[in-house]
């Protein structure tokens, strides 16, 4: 189990480099000048990028799956991938109505087919009429199809109790990640002490650290309070900000609510405090709200930053600059593969808007099937429509199962010695803390929770992501696990992790 | 007709800025500190980005379309958008087989439907089996679905007469643009005189200049030879390269073949010379081959850079680093909205490959419907399959119509005084040269061919892109027009441009 990637970065990188360079030159006699593009001559920012959700553990999991296919004997028969929020891969079925409309849009001849309900056909016709040549194969406007942006604005108004939303402030995107990176790209500038600093929570979703490394921005960590259900604490925000002002120019505050990987749901009060803080400190707010339908815990409720911002009055709603992000990949639909999403911008400078539209136009447009899917998410079947009953049944089934699994996960983990787990108030993940025996921590050159997860994968076939991939307080160790496996399978997973934790603790005590 | 965006950039930008700042502060009382994100405080590289294909002319065209809808009286009843290679928007019908399979993948219940041919069902089943949970709503591997990468490799081998292609060298992407920007991102580094320089043709497809501005790379222009059918001339490459070596570090050579916007198809000899040049000068080759099925002219033929590279022997095929790009958006399918594409990398350093996979994993995966569509493009119906006849009929109809329109366009333009037009050997565009009267050129503060195209749009409802958006030799003027409108409509367009050209010349003589 001395898999190379368990060794800390730089050392491995060096020897790996030497080895491959030698072997490669042997293999195909590269000219004495060597290659144009090598690890030494490539973009250094890209080298700094890390993305644990699809890191070494997952690569190893894929390899094990292949070995199993080829008949290798293992202590398990399948690898359970609880590393990524990929609902359909975990067996969740697509929402029938959504897929009917997408089929109609893909192959409009089906509009003559009596098997499809009228409301599905009506949605498909409306989308097709908004497409060039009535085909989802045409480019759309770079900002997204206009009638879909109007539907998104209506959805937001309804969600936020009537607070107006302007379709001109809606930008459709290739999943939420695309929009998040685009806004960060607009914001990052300056050199040295003037370099843009961006505040992100620790633990964080590694898209943020990856994008900041890529853009060469300064990452400013603020720590969530594990002892208080991973809540966000303004004092900690102040500490992080004033420390950062010593060496960079903090301009952006990123919030993920409900939290990924930590599953907390922010109180209205907390959101109000964050907004006040952003205004006082002159920060651009980025609100990652892709889990807005994923709230499970008693007494918890999703409050959008937009709604709270406007309820705080014009002093805030006319000045605080904000972008909020949503996606088709999470919530009850879990349609990750379509890469659909949108952002709403508030108080964005009109000239910057023009720059934003210019920037997105270079990539022509977000995938049109993803735009169509997003339109259905924000404009689902209504009570008077034929598909309503089935849609609600399917939607409720997914969300109540998730709520059940969230409770189950917290309960069982907290019975395991050496594992402590906050309630999964929302989103799709649990981020329990694991107590590792000193002998395991001391293992020379190994990242302790990476070592733990790699052992778990090899021994039980369960694929998790080490806490180190999301960031955690020095000396603490965690892992992220999705709550997406079907309930019965999840129970098995939790049981296996329990046994592994006991075994692991014993082995290294 | 003194539309503001006709005024040269910087001046307009300044006054526009002052105006909006004032009005905005009036509107919503921005705090005295002003906004966090303004034109002055945003990423300067983004400001340098330009993308004429969706620039001011197109924005004006969209506005005119709205005015027509609202019943405005114009000298025309519709706007004909010949500015962008968007086949479906111009009325081209999707390939039936492709859309049948996509419908089956979107709504697998249709697999039971006898209306769908067996080969379509078989393709859909194979794709679904390769998806997590058998759903195109699951994330795929970041590099793309494995069996699709295998099909792409087989397609390339067949295309290149058996020269081997390795699926591990295939990376699926969100259209070709995504892959092009990703490779450039890996390559760009260094500061000052060490900054990476990238050679691009002039005229160019503005994705390249936009990506280089965004990445802060140095753009190195080499001019295509308009007097010789826009052919690429090695002497000109040498000139551009040695000039650039004075102030940057040239590392990359970008080629578009068949050419966009210029429509030339490179001879095998020319490709060989380019490859030899790249090896001698130690340049990374980027071959944009998205129009590989779009070759019309007698005696012209598409040669892939990969094939020529390998035919030149191991001295080249083992050393020259290259990436080649393809897309679902062009050729006979024209499925732009799905954002499907792939790149094949040759001789890429194994460590850089690992970095590339890490980088693409941050965006999770390319849109899965686009991946599915790409699979059909590289693995279309075979002679023994039920859908073959219809597929070939549809494919041939599109390609022969394009060939006919390519001839027609050249013919007619060359009868117009003041317009000279090279043969459209391939791709989807013509880039004719226009002779403008001195009075029009002298119009204070106006970009002459932008002025010409804006007038054409306002008077005839025809939307073209000014040559200045692609780059052209100082003192020459052009426009890019797609040959995509249906033949009858194209004839009308050509006739209208003819009349406009005569009128315009008279008015300013």
Automatic annotation (TrEMBL), chains A, B:
Q: Which cofactor does it need?
A: pyridoxal 5'-phosphate
- Give the pathway annotation: Amino-acid degradation; L-alanine degradation via transaminase pathway; pyruvate from L-alanine: step 1/1
Q: Which residues cross the membrane?
A: none
Domain Aminotransferase class I/classII large span(s) in chain numbering: 101-497
- InterPro entries in the cross-refs: ALAT1/2-like (IPR045088), Aminotransferase_I/II_large (IPR004839), PyrdxlP-dep_Trfase (IPR015424), PyrdxlP-dep_Trfase_major (IPR015421), PyrdxlP-dep_Trfase_small (IPR015422)
Catalysed reactions listed for this entry: L-alanine + 2-oxoglutarate = pyruvate + L-glutamate
> Which Pfam families does this UniProt record tie to the protein?
Aminotran_1_2
Keywords (alphabetical) are: Aminotransferase, Pyridoxal phosphate, Transferase
Superkingdom, according to UniProt? Answer: Eukaryota
Please name the Gene3D superfamilies in this protein's record: 1.10.287.1970, Aspartate Aminotransferase, domain 1 (3.90.1150.10), Type I PLP-dependent aspartate aminotransferase-like (Major domain) (3.40.640.10)
| EC numbers, comma separated | 2.6.1.2
The UniProt GO MF terms for this protein read: L-alanine:2-oxoglutarate aminotransferase activity; pyridoxal phosphate binding
Q: Which GO terms describe its cellular component?
A: cytoplasm
Record-stated family:
Belongs to the class-I pyridoxal-phosphate-dependent aminotransferase family. Alanine aminotransferase subfamily.
The record's subunit annotation is: Homodimer.
Q: What does this protein do?
A: Catalyzes the reversible transamination between alanine and 2-oxoglutarate to form pyruvate and glutamate.
Q: What is this protein called?
A: alanine transaminase
User: Whose protein is this, by species?
Assistant: Astatotilapia calliptera
Q: Which gene encodes it?
A: GPT
């Amino acid at each position: 189990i001395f898999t190379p990637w368990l060794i800390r970065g730089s050392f491995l990188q060096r020897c790996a480099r030497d080895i491959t360079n030698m072997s490669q030159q042997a293999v195909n006699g590269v000219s004495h000048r060597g290659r144009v593009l090598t690890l030494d001559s490539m973009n250094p920012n890209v080298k700094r990028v890390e993305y644990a959700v699809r890191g070494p553990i997952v690569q190893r999991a894929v390899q094990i799956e292949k070995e199993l296919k080829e008949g290798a004997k293992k202590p398990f028969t399948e690898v359970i991938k609880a590393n990524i929020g990929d609902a359909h891969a975990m067996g969740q079925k697509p929402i029938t109505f959504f897929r009917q409309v997408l089929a109609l849009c893909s192959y409009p001849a089906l509009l003559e087919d009596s098997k499809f309900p009228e409301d599905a056909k009506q949605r498909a016709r409306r989308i097709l009429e908004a497409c060039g040549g009535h085909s989802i194969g045409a480019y759309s406007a770079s900002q997204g199809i206009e009638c879909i942006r109007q539907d998104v604005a209506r959805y937001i108004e309804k969600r936020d109790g009537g607070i107006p939303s302007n379709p001109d402030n809606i930008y459709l995107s290739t999943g939420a990640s695309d929009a998040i990176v685009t806004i960060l790209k607009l914001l990052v500038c300056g050199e040295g002490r003037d370099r843009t600093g961006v505040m992100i929570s620790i633990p964080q979703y590694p898209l943020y650290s990856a994008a900041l490394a890529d853009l060469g921005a300064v990452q400013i960590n603020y720590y969530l309070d594990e002892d208080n259900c991973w809540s966000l604490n303004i004092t900690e925000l102040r500490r992080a900000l004033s420390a950062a002002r010593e060496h960079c120019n903090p301009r952006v505050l990123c919030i993920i609510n409900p939290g990924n990987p930590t599953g907390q749901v922010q109180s209205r009060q907390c959101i109000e405090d964050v907004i006040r803080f952003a205004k006082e400190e002159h920060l651009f707010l980025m609100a990652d709200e892709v889990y807005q339908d994923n709230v499970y815990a008693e007494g918890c409720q999703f409050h959008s930053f937009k709604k709270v911002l406007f309820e705080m009055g014009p002093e805030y709603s006319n000045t605080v600059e904000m972008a909020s992000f949503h996606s088709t990949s999470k919530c009850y639909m879990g349609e990750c593969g379509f890469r659909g999403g949108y952002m709403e911008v508030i108080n964005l400078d009109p000239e910057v808007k023009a720059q934003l539209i210019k920037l997105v136009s270079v990539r022509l447009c977000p995938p049109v099937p993803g735009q169509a899917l997003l339109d259905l998410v924000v404009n689902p079947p209504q009570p008077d429509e034929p598909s309503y009953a089935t849609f609600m049944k399917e939607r409720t089934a997914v969300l109540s199962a998730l709520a059940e699994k969230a409770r189950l996960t917290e309960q069982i983990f907290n019975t395991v010695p050496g594992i402590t787990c906050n309630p999964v108030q929302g989103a799709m993940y649990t981020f329990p803390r694991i107590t590792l025996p000193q002998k395991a921590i001391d293992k020379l050159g190994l990242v302790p929770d990476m070592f733990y997860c790699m052992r778990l994968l090899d021994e039980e076939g369960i694929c998790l992501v080490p806490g180190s991939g999301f960031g955690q307080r020095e000396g603490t160790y965690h892992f992220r696990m999705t709550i997406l496996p079907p309930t019965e399978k999840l129970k098995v997973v939790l049981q296996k992790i329990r046994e592994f934790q006991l075994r692991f603790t014993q082995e290294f005590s």
